[in-house]
Amino acid sequence: MEITRGLLVFGSTTGATRILAGAVKKGLLLAGVDVVAKNVLRTKVEELSTFPVLVMGCSTWENGCLQKDFQRFRDALGSLRLDGVLAAVFGPGSHGYPHFCRAVDVLEKELLARGATLALPSLRIDGSVYSKRAIAQEWAEGMKGRLF
Q1: Average pLDDT for the chain
Q2: Is the separation of the CB atoms in 58 and 16 below 8 Å?
Q3: Crossing angle for the helix pair 133-141 and 16-30, nearest 10 degrees?
Q4: Which pLDDT tens digit goes with each residue over 123-147?
Q5: CB-count burial class (<10 Å; 0-12, 13-18, 19+) for 97
Q6: b/e 111-139 (16+ beta carbons within 10 angstroms → b)
């Protein structure tokens, strides 16, 4: 199997998205993606287009907003194009809030508008992430067979 390079970018305020990102990274590795996982604070916009696989993880805050670090990153994207990039998005949330995992929808639309192709249906984790790491890993393993 050919190994594909991938970038996993996540923003985490409380640690929930970071925990999910660890499970997603493991799943991507099992799917044959040589993945680099980076906090959005340590990611440069221009890096996004240098990987054929891009996975983003972000929680939803306040009235359906992106996590604050991810919002700043999104605002800095400028005219970046992601044509030919295979992408996927995940995020934690709570059905107790009216905008459950809206950040996932926002990032998916952003990726599509920039020319990326969504490889997987988005992953939305409700509630505590600790017991749902296996779900996130399995979701990321679903990238296998969708790689170029």
Answers
A1: 93
A2: no
A3: 40
A4: 999 988 999 999 999 999 999 877 7
A5: middle
A6: beebebeebbebbbbeeebeebbebbbeb
The amino acid sitting at 143 is M
Q: In terms of pTM, does the model score above 0.90?
A: yes
Copy the structure tokens of residue 137. 């890993």
The reported pLDDT for the residue numbered 96 is 82
Section 101-113 average pLDDT:
96
What are the pLDDT digits (tens) for 7-44? 999 999 899 999 999 999 999 999 999 999 999 999 99
Q: Which two tokens stand for residue 21?
A: 């990102």
| DSSP character string of the chain | ---EEEEEEEE-SSSHHHHHHHHHHHHHHHTTEEEEEEEGGG--GGGGGG-SEEEEEE-EETTTEEPHHHHHHHHT-TT---TT-EEEEEEEE-TTSTTTTHHHHHHHHHHHHTT-EE-S--EEEES-SGGGHHHHHHHHHTTTTT--
